[in-house]
Write a structure and sequence with these properties.
Blueprint lengths: L8 H6 L5 E3 L7 H6 L6 H5 L5 E5 L5 H9 L4 E6 L2 H13 L5 E5 L5 H4 L5 E7 L17 H10 E11 L2 H13 L3 E6 L14 H8 L5 E6 L2
Parallel strand pairs: 1-4, 2-3, 2-5, 3-4, 5-6
Antiparallel strand pairs: 6-8, 7-8
Length: 223
């Protein structure tokens, strides 16, 4: 079902302009668009050179905001393509006075145009859409085409951290990551009973866990 546009959305997004960048491009071919770099100056945006963390699909911002508060030594770039959703994340961060989180509204395929190579120390993929039909597999955020987008952005020791409630998507992710140059560690088939520390519970995670569903988690890195 299509999401209804929120009332006064444009005005609300404009009010978030100091911590939100909206991707606009007339070029529909992501690879061609990325050839003309328009790198964002994150040192100027955040006012420091702290390490950069990237969350793709930040939803309403619960993870990004909590992570930012727990780790002021990091700067968080939170990406979400839906204006209806990201506006709530931006407003949440502003209301809490969080300075080390910055939001990008747009599709992940355009990120290489705006983020320099080798600067991201960790990528979080929290409860991404699993796109269960096989014909839509290329839309999954752990598909090869996305992994090839992430790789240049990642620093030498960077990691990808994924959480999902979907077992088949998790199995797909393990296979895709393994086949595309990543090694895996800290794999959990039941995160909430695993003993893994400092797990920030997202909106979706809280819903699924309350239903007794296991949460799957992994960490991936390039050796």
């Amino acid at each position: 079902m299509r999401m209804r546009r929120k009332k006064n959305l444009d005005t609300r997004l404009e009010n978030c302009a100091d911590n939100l960048f909206e991707i606009h491009s007339d070029e529909l071919n992501f690879n061609i668009a990325a050839q003309k770099k328009e790198y964002l100056d994150f040192a100027a945006i955040f006012g420091n050179d702290n390490p950069l963390i990237l969350e793709i699909g930040c939803g309403k911002g619960q993870f990004a905001c909590e992570f930012a508060l727990l780790h002021p030594e990091y700067n968080i770039i939170a990406v979400e393509k839906y204006g209806n959703v990201i506006v709530q994340a931006c407003e949440k961060a502003k209301a809490a006075g969080i300075k080390n989180v910055f939001f990008i509204k747009g599709m992940a395929e355009y990120l290489p145009k705006y983020i320099p190579d080798g600067v991201i120390e960790r990528i979080y993929l929290n409860f991404s859409c699993p796109f269960p039909k096989s014909k839509y597999a290329s839309h999954r955020l752990t598909h090869k085409r996305f992994l090839e987008i992430y790789k240049p952005l990642m620093s030498k020791d960077a990691e990808i951290h994924q959480k999902t409630d979907n077992m088949h998507f998790f199995e797909f992710s393990i296979q895709s990551l393994s086949q595309n140059g990543f090694k895996l560690k800290n794999i959990s088939l039941d995160l909430h009973n695993s003993g893994i520390e400092e797990n920030i519970v997202t909106e979706y995670e809280n819903r699924f866990a309350s239903m007794g569903m296991p949460i799957y988690r992994l960490e991936a890195y390039i050796d």
